[in-house]
Fold this sequence. Notes:
By secondary structure, the chain is an alpha+beta fold. It has two domains: 35-146 and 256-280, Sandwich (Immunoglobulin-like), CATH 2.60.40.10; 154-253, Immunoglobulins (Immunoglobulin-like, Sandwich), CATH 2.60.40. It is built from three helices and 22 strands. Helix 1 (4-31) packs antiparallel against helix 3 (265-280). The radius of gyration is 28 Å and the shape is elongated. 25% of the residues are buried. The site of one 2-acetamido-2-deoxy-beta-D-glucopyranose has 2 residues, from loops. This is Ig-like domain-containing protein. Keywords: Adaptive immunity, Cell membrane, Disulfide bond, Glycoprotein, Immunity, Immunoglobulin domain, Lipoprotein, Membrane, Repeat, Signal, Transmembrane, Transmembrane helix.
Amino acid sequence: MASLGQIILWSMITIIIILVAVIVLIIGFGVSGRRSISVTTLTSAGNIGEDGILGCTFEPDVKLSNIEIRWAKAGVSGMVHEFKGGKDHLKDQDEVFKGRTAIFPEQVIGGNASLMLRDVQLSDAGAYRCSVTTSKGNGEAGLKYKTGAFSSPEMHVDYNSSMDTLRCEAPRWFPQPVVTWTSHNNTRDNLSEVSNTSFKLNSENVTMNVVSVLHNITANTTYTCVIKNDIAKATGDIKVTDFSIKKTVHLQLLTTNMASGSLSPPALYWILLSLLYLMAL
Ligand SMILES: *[C@@H]1O[C@H](CO)[C@@H](O)[C@H](O)[C@H]1NC(C)=O
Ligand SMILES: *[C@@H]1O[C@H](CO)[C@@H](O)[C@H](O)[C@H]1NC(C)=O
Ligand SMILES: *[C@@H]1O[C@H](CO)[C@@H](O)[C@H](O)[C@H]1NC(C)=O
Ligand SMILES: *[C@@H]1O[C@H](CO)[C@@H](O)[C@H](O)[C@H]1NC(C)=O
Ligand SMILES: *[C@@H]1O[C@H](CO)[C@@H](O)[C@H](O)[C@H]1NC(C)=O
Ligand SMILES: *[C@@H]1O[C@H](CO)[C@@H](O)[C@H](O)[C@H]1NC(C)=O
Ligand SMILES: *[C@@H]1O[C@H](CO)[C@@H](O)[C@H](O)[C@H]1NC(C)=O
Ligand SMILES: *[C@@H]1O[C@H](CO)[C@@H](O)[C@H](O)[C@H]1NC(C)=O
């Protein structure tokens, strides 16, 4: 049996915990007094050395001066980019991003908070967060930015002695892709075993040149070369007939959409309520 003293002690601790929770709840409502607005991110992988766009959209506001946009990156102490009152605010910008970022000012009024990142580096990969405040409220969303290299292939026919050879060549890929060949006649056959693929490091020592050859091809058949890594997929089709060569190439990027809206006040409320309920048991 618990003594009267213990019961009083536990009651007091419980009361204190409940009071603290209530205060947190009140402060929570005070801080996020305005309602939350929806913010959505969408991006595809960045191609090393080129410009990339980290997409972010939000519920528009009629006044540009009310809109604040903040881009941050996990593990980076400074800001990636800050925009408020219709202009860039870059005094807290991290060294890594100096001179490489831009918001599209004329698009902001329409709800576009996308970030342009110039000269994408492998090290730009990571978790980014797009936070937007307007007169209606605030919201944020995260995205995972991947970086690498990808390029469209060129398809060639090498006419050589008795047997013809197809060559599928792409100048820049990273990480090292997988190359597969198929023929599309009546059925789709996997020809990866009769092909030869080589990877040669480019001069900057990161991206690689991809060359894949397929031997013993037959006329009137469509052959497909697929170059693929975890950020992009390139496809080259080629059909050689007695009179012509038909080629098509296609580059497709993996896109990530990781809208992670902030906890809205009602959600916070229910979590605290559940906590209070658990403590009361
Ligand atoms: C935002 O604006 C940029 C620059 O004009 C554009 O490339 C991008 O597609 C826009 N994003 C959306 C979601 O409209
Ligand atoms: C095919 O052509 C290449 C140059 O185009 C040549 O080096 C190679 O010896 C040829 N191979 C055959 C089997 O004819
Ligand atoms: C494609 O089909 C034609 C006729 O149907 C056949 O002669 C040829 O060998 C086939 N090619 C391949 C690669 O299967
Ligand atoms: C083709 O075959 C190779 C090895 O036999 C295999 O690694 C590859 O996944 C296959 N590709 C397809 C598209 O089935
Ligand atoms: C294909 O690659 C193998 C090694 O993987 C090599 O021995 C062979 O000579 C290559 N064949 C051609 C035609 O390039
Ligand atoms: C690439 O690597 C080679 C050998 O490892 C080195 O000599 C060269 O300087 C490197 N190039 C760059 C741009 O780092
Ligand atoms: C390709 O053709 C050569 C010569 O015609 C033949 O020796 C070889 O077995 C063929 N290879 C394949 C994979 O069909
Ligand atoms: C390819 O198709 C054309 C017209 O359809 C035909 O004349 C030719 O004989 C075919 N060639 C082969 C190698 O099947």
